[in-house]
Specification:
- By secondary structure, this protein is an alpha/beta fold.
- The chain has one domain.
- Helices cover 42% and strands 14% of the residues.
- It has a four-stranded parallel β-sheet, covered by helices on one side.
- The chain is globular and about 40 Å long.
Length: 118
């Protein structure tokens, strides 16, 4: 199983496999053909996103809240689907954030990998 992460602004590479965008909003300047799938169910809610961007939540609290959001049926269904897909080939989780260490895409990647281990 290979699940990678990138910012959506990085050029597509054949080693990316299936490129999956997990944002609440479509990013400016990004063409639709640079992404294979757009999965909003794996994006933070607008309220959570705004609270984090406005400094109302630090990273640990944001991460905790995001993990709670990922327990809903739609998110779980997509995590399961992508986990199955990653068994057959590489998938790359994309977001607009520049740095992975404080971006939900790294959490999504970990959830997909963990789902496969269950």
């Amino acid at each position: 199983m290979t699940v990678k992460t990138k910012t959506v602004y990085e050029y597509p590479d054949p080693s990316d496999g299936t490129r999956v965008l997990v944002t609440q909003y479509w990013p400016r300047g990004v063409s639709r053909d640079s992404v294979d799938e757009y999965v909003r169910e794996l994006a933070p809610s607008r309220a959570l996103l705004h609270a984090y961007r406005n400094g109302e939540l630090d990273w640990p609290r944001y991460r905790h809240q995001f993990l709670l959001e990922m327990k809903y049926e739609g998110a779980l269904r997509e995590i399961h689907r992508l986990s199955k897909s990653a068994r057959d080939g590489t998938i790359t989780i994309l977001c607009v954030c520049k740095y992975e260490d404080q971006c939900h895409r790294s959490i999504v990647r970990d959830l997909i990998v963990a789902f496969d281990e269950e």
